[in-house]
Amino acid sequence: MLDEWKGKRVLITGASRGIGAAVARQMGALGARVAVHYHASADKAEAVAADIRAAGGEAATIKGDVSRSEEARRVVDEAVERLGGLDLLINNAGDMLGRIALGEIDDAHYDRVMDLNARSVVMVSQAALPHFRRAGGGNIIHTSSIAARNGGGPGAGLYAAAKGFVSTLTRNMAKELMDDGIRVNAVAPGVITTDFHARHSTEEQLAAAAASIPMGRTGVAEECVGAYVFLGSDSMSGYVNGQIIEVNGGQLMP
């Protein structure tokens, strides 16, 4: 069943660290050809690509700011050129960009958060459509968040709202693109111990989160990977469409 990954052409945005990097490494190890997108972390992206090659996969690194529409289109076109086509797109790029209380949000912060977490998903997906249509179909997986369902923590309102946008867009895209043979789903991680929380959460906040999780701990990036592999596999999830898979240790049980 996993043999289908050999040669599968995959673009992962935000793949230089955290969940994106873990997914890229695993898909590469399964034999996929992976375009590792990054914005600023060139060294980390190259390290991910090196690990993929060492595991027997193929990898290319692609730099770009997918929060900008023109750059999003360029990243997709470059990935298609370097991979020789596109079978799977994973829209993973995103960040809270700081915990900012409602009374302190200004236009610049609003634009940065929404452009990165919402606009990028729309524009990268839009840019991939012609390539999928020429191929007769494709697969898109978005990265949402538990924050889309619970509203996020203090100062995370815009980020949570943007991820709610992603979850809703997932369902709409699944219906809109069904006739093109394109499946669209999402993964919604819970509290995952990556540099995201190292930058945006205190030890006290993480301890409080862990206490609210039935499994009694936060997760790690590698524990999210299986959901992406499942959704990316036509043989395993060919009849799964418009779904958001929650990976949160039981913190949220929809």
Explain what the structure shows.
It is a single chain. With 254 residues, the chain is an alpha/beta fold. It has a single domain, classed as NAD(P)-binding Rossmann-like Domain (Rossmann fold, 3-Layer(aba) Sandwich). The chain has ten helices and seven strands. The protein has helices at residues 18-29, 42-54, 69-83, 107-135, 147-150, 157-176, 195-200, 203-211, 225-232, 234-237, and strands spanning 9-12, 33-38, 58-63, 88-91, 138-143, 182-189, 244-247. Strands 3-2-1-4-5-6-7 form a seven-stranded parallel sheet, with helices on both faces. Helix 1 packs parallel to helix 2, helix 3 runs parallel beside helix 4 and helix 4 runs parallel beside helix 6. The longest helix has 29 residues, at 107-135. It is globular and about 45 Å long. The relative contact order is 0.14.
Summarize, please.
The protein is α/β, with parallel strands linked by helices. Helix content is 47%, strand content 15%.
Question: First CA to last CA: what distance?
Answer: 29 Å
The general outline is: globular
What do we call the CATH topology? Answer: Rossmann fold
Strand arrangement, largest sheet?
Answer: 3-2-1-4-5-6-7
What is the CATH C level class, in words? Alpha Beta
The CATH homologous superfamily is termed: NAD(P)-binding Rossmann-like Domain
Rg for CA atoms? 17 Å
Q: Ranges with pLDDT <50 over ≥5 residues?
A: none
Question: What is the domain total for the residues?
Answer: 1
> What proportion of the residues is helical, as a percent range?
40-55%
The helix count comes to 10
Major sheet: 7 strands, parallel
Could you state the order of secondary-structure elements as H and E?
EHEHEHEHEHHEHHHHE
**How much is the average pLDDT?**
95
Q: Give the beta-strand count.
A: 7
Q: Briefly note the structural class of the backbone.
A: alpha/beta
Any idea what the CATH architecture is? 3-Layer(aba) Sandwich
